[in-house]
Amino acid sequence: MENMVKVKQLLDSLFNIIELDRDPGFSRFIPQVYDPIKVDWTQYFEADFSKRFNGLMMKGSDQMNTVFLAVFPTDQVLESFINEASEGDLLFLHHPLVMECGDPRGEWGRGFVPIRKSLLQSLKDKKLSVYTCHTPLDYHLEISTNMAIANVMNALVIDRFIYEEGKSIGLICDVEPIDTAGLIKKLESIFEIPYVDFEGEQHNFIDRIAIVAGCGDKVAFMREAESFGVQAYVTGEIHCHIDNDYGRAKYKQMMDYVPESTMSLIGVSHSASEYMVMQTQMKNWFTDKMDVNVRLLPQHKWWL
Fold first, then answer.
1. What is the pLDDT along the chain (304 residues), one digit of tens a residue?
2. H-type alpha helices, 20-168
3. Three-state DSSP class for 267?
4. Using an 8 Å Cβ cutoff, are 195 and 171 in contact?
5. What predicted TM-score, i.e. pTM, was given to this entire model?
């Protein structure tokens, strides 16, 4: 059992939450999805979270026994947490909202989706806590969505790229030689996904890859990776399959770029790419630092 004050302090220290400005993405996306449906999200979320959009989002009871780890707060994830958790338990998430990026072999997504009000109320009524960590979990030098992928692939990090506000969210790595087909098969096994999203070149020899967890579907990111001699670009999303004007414009930008790319472009799904850090590094961190049980909450469907 641990005290929530201590847990919050340890997490805030690990990710330097107190030093952060407002999260550039979720400070916009949270109001954008809740305000039109007239849900006063500030009555559910902690005051400091409502300023930074990282950190302790919902505070339950002071004592906790179990930490649950997930990526997106999907209905399935939240319902499992509410049903299985005891008062005071913590859900640690990467995103405070679901992001439906779309299925490359199925339905296109809706983009950012709010947590249903009934689920927010259930979390509050059961006195459960929720902590979310977005960009700090992408650029941390040791515990990050990207480093977790590099570690599980036994990839050697040789450089970093994609710098935003002085922080890198992409890795350039050397790997044991493999071909495109073998790399796809390996990624499907690692991330436990039925298929990848693929564009670009098929290579017989790959020994250098780029890793960009989450949304790597930006042409500028891919061109930068190519400048490092990368043969394969591994990310969560190579295409934006969001069913609106923004998503269709981004999809077209990618398809315009594909003929000029020299790389194998491989997407493993946004949520699956970011779940690896939960399965490995965050699970180990909680186990090492605290006297708590740790439970994983994988999504039933990775391509959303």
1. 899 999 999 999 999 998 878 888 899 999 999 999 999 999 999 999 999 999 999 999 999 999 999 999 999 999 999 999 999 999 999 999 999 999 999 999 999 999 999 999 999 999 999 999 999 999 999 999 999 999 999 999 999 999 987 899 999 999 999 999 999 999 999 999 999 999 999 999 999 999 999 999 999 999 999 999 999 999 999 999 999 999 999 999 999 999 999 999 999 999 999 999 999 999 999 999 999 999 999 999 999 9
2. 26-34, 49-52, 75-84, 117-125, 135-139, 145-152
3. strand
4. no
5. 0.96
